[in-house]
From TrEMBL:
Domain of life: Bacteria
InterPro entries per record: Nucleotide-diphossugar_trans, Trfase_1_rSAM/seldom-assoc
Protein's name according to its UniProt entry: TIGR04282 family arsenosugar biosynthesis glycosyltransferase
Signal peptide extent: none
Amino acid sequence: MNDKQLLMLFVRNPELGKVKTRLAAAVGPEKALEIYLQLLQHTYSITKELPVQKLVYYSEALDTNDLWPNEQYHKRVQPAGDLGEKMADAFAAAFSEGYTSVVIIGSDCLQLTPDIILQAYRELEEHDVVIGPALDGGYYLLGMNRLHPELFRNKRWSTADVFPATVHDIHNLRLSYTLLPRLSDVDYVEDLEATL
């Protein structure tokens, strides 16, 4: 176990009508919740054995009795603000607590594997930033060795602009970076079909 490496997981509390809303428009809120629960289960299964510290950030409220065992996963509620502000604050907190390699993932990627996450930490030994680009133009993973708040500012979150805008900022900051495999996030029915 590396106590200086932290994996942060941003998840939504699995509530009917509040998860996978774009998917729900096609399949209905009940089916969308069922799919989201499968995504959470997948995310747990690929992270539970990783030899790093783990922290689950919930969208609404802490749940100490869910699929994330309290002995393995620290738990907090996401900070206030838009997605960028939430992530920036989470990274800032992690570095202030002494972590030296910090990676964040969501819970939307059925193609994500333990090996890819471990690869991110290996890449951080030689690069300032590591990104896992998503097919929809966002990213499913972001890692860094110290806070670069510019990467979280002036982004149109949940659009195809996020990944290119982030890389643009990395170039402007003259940071070294590397890319992980391009994977599919599950936001629409087509995404789900593509990953099965």
